[in-house]
Amino acid sequence: MLMRLNKFLADNGVASRRKADELIESGEVFVNGKRVFELGIKVDPNQDKVKVNGKLVHVEKNNKVYILFYKPKEVITSLKDPEGRPCVGDFFADRKERLYPIGRLDWDSEGMLLLTNDGEFANKVSHPRHKVRKKYLVKINGKISNQQMDKLRNGVSIPNGGRVQAKFLKRLRGKSTDKNDWLELDITEGKNRQIRKMFAKLEFDVLKLKRIAIGKLELGNMKPGASKVLSDNDIKKIFSDPLKSKKPGRQKSKKIVHD
Is 106 a residue of the active site? Predict the structure, then answer.
């Protein structure tokens, strides 16, 4: 059975579909010894030999893995780093599967990161059209007004990212101080350095950034560097909306109320 090349690469743990498209466009993928650039090309997983950077892609036999990892600060969200900096791949060097991270957290950010060898799953978690919520704790260098919070809720334009918005936003009274506010914030777009750019639009610097949940799956009391294999129930939580009430008739709308 023929399938698109990017899906073949994603299904066999090489990269997500979007990253696979980048590999194809950059000429790093060969099919039966021929370099390919066409994104829509199809391959036969049982017949065609596909190589990426000279390495043969082995067909996975339904051995899908889903891992939750607490990425520490000052760790690169990649499997290898040419500059020799600490990277996510260092924590999973002993695993036989070709895992790759879903999305990214910046060098100076920490918290929940998912890794998998399932391209369809990665696409469903990361693509904005699926509207999977990612929840963060954010510390900024100042005090934000209700009007400024409304701007983030309504949407702002960020460099190289278009218009983005906070799907949920509240000030954390117990953590905020006279000089710095802590906020809890949900997004679904996941653009590069999105949250930092959103606050920069309002002339704030983000001092600390921690992802604490994806959907209803929470980081909980995990420690930096810790990881665990996700259960079927954990995976279901990822695609559950944390703002949907379990009780009928409550919170049907997603209207944000000022804190």
Answer: yes
